[in-house]
Amino acid sequence: MEIKEQLTNLIEKNKAKIKFASFSDETIxxxxxxxxxxxxxxELFITEGMWAIPKIIFNKCEVVAFIFNPNCIKSESGLxxxxxxxxxxxxxxxxxxxxxxxxKRNDDNGIYCIVxxxxxxxxxxxxxxxxxxxxLDGIEKPGNIGTILRTCxxxxxxxxxxxxxxxxxxxxxxxxxxMGGIFNVPIKQYASVKDCWRELNNFxxxxxxxxxxxxxxxxxxxxxxxxxxxxxxxxxxxxxxxxETPHTLLKLKxxxxxxxxxxxxxxxxxxxxxxxxxxxx
Length: 281
Fold this sequence. Notes:
Elements: H1 3-13, E1 18-20, H2 26-35, E2 44-48, H3 53-58, E3 63-68, H4 76-85, E4 90-93, H5 96-102, E5 111-116, H6 122-126, E6 131-137, H7 142-154, E7 159-163, H8 172-178, H9 181-184, E8 187-189, H10 193-202, E9 206-210, E10 226-232, H11 240-243, E11 248-250, H12 263-278
Parallel strand pairs: 1-4, 3-4, 6-7, 6-10, 7-8, 9-10, 9-11
Antiparallel strand pairs: 2-5, 3-5
């Protein structure tokens, strides 16, 4: 039996659990706002396409709604995604017309999950003896935050702290850029540098500021057991409030004509160095 026929039978069998939604439906409006970064709810984000489904399921993320266009379900994995979510969350079927209003992309990405950001026991995380925290101060581009979350997942960084927020972690560019990192990297946002520093200080973290003006290169450090790496925006750098707290400056040596690296790339280099030294490698 072909995928299309199986899907038709699945929808027919579960008519009571599936809603055929118009563009004016409240959930579809929410999906549209999330896709266009116009949602005021800081706890929700949206994924587009099949790439995220296995990660959402594996990490047991809370899915508020699963939305799909039947013409975009062309594989066994797509069919299995529908089977998985029917009966577990709100499932919506949308027409080609509604899909075209949701997205300008003319491909097979008509599969959406509205997901709730995971919550964590942050005190338990910060209490770990050997831990690494990455603090993002005023990072402006959501794609860069996504890249950093991806690196934090790859290096198993314990937590990401965000202060002086200039971009949403729920932005679709951040979600896609993280390639799943947003599903399992603990993220906490702070109202001010003082609030963030106070928590780090209370839990005994040594704070390192990435600054091109530093005298010492990153690879010369034996980092503390509890390390907090602070990365600033490419335009403004690290907030001056951090320099008024106990800290150590480190830098990435630039051997060419460019005076700095993209913040996502720089963070990756530094986090890998810190992590490898923590592991004794």
